[in-house]
């Protein structure tokens, strides 16, 4: 992935990885949903595409952390259920 200007597909992939709809991304960035859609279709200025890419890269880290926390929670839930079965 380019460090400065993401491709339309990279913008879409990053948005999807962050688990955001076009509307949610638009709200976070202060852009319209039409602008986000245009970016994903390659019809956008370099400046806006770069800004969207930066925001999405920042959002990707919390999404990765959330996935890790979800896994840890599932593991802990399984351990508690196993302990509960053993105590019964």
From TrEMBL:
Which Gene3D superfamilies does the annotation name? lambda repressor-like DNA-binding domains
GO molecular function terms attached to this record: DNA binding
Pfam families with a match to the protein in the record: HTH_31 (PF13560)
Xref: SUPFAM superfamilies: lambda repressor-like DNA-binding domains (SSF47413)
**What PROSITE patterns does its record include?**
HTH_CROC1
Where does the sequence pass through the membrane? none
InterPro entries to which the protein is assigned, alphabetical: Cro/C1-type_HTH, Lambda_DNA-bd_dom_sf
HTH cro/C1-type domain span: 11-66
Q: What is this protein called?
A: Transcriptional regulator with XRE-family HTH domain
């Amino acid at each position: 992935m380019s460090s400065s200007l993401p491709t339309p597909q990279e913008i879409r992939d990053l948005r999807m990885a962050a688990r955001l709809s076009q509307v949610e991304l638009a709200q976070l960035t202060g852009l319209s949903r039409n602008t986000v859609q245009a970016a994903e279709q390659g019809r956008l200025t370099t400046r806006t595409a770069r800004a969207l890419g930066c925001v999405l890269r920042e959002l990707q880290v919390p999404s990765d952390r959330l996935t890790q926390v979800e896994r840890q929670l599932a593991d802990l839930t399984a351990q508690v259920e196993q302990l509960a079965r053993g105590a019964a």
